[in-house]
Amino acid sequence: MIEVDVHTGAQAIYQGQQQRDSVYQNYLEDTETLASLEARNAIATAYENNKTAIEAQAAGQKAINDYYAHHQRQNLEMLAADSAEIAYYHNVTDLRRFYFTVVSEHDGHVDVDNRRVGQRDHGGQHDAG
């Protein structure tokens, strides 16, 4: 059933987000240290390549910016993937609702979750069958 697929998929999205949140919290705790190490490595490499102090400082700042940009890009890609999957589930459930509405208007009988809905009377009411 589509409901089971949607529920299972949504649970997987939620569990993935919980896991990523945990990893991200650890990243936030360590990020200043790690970004600083990236900068130090870039500065050292710049000096080894006979760059000036200003060029070395710029290389260090670029390393910090690149470090944060990389993690932001990863987070956005994961969010985009989750959003696309959620949109898919939304579309599937909307199509299902649309299908049942069209069938209902066409012949007056719809089987939703094993409940049969009867034909419409002239007042637009449904009788349960």
Automatic annotation (TrEMBL):
Pfam families (alphabetical): Viral_env_HRPV (PF26255)
Limits of the Envelope protein N-terminal domain: 3-102
Designated name of the protein: Envelope protein N-terminal domain-containing protein
Species of the source: Natrinema altunense (strain JCM 12890 / CGMCC 1.3731 / AJ2)
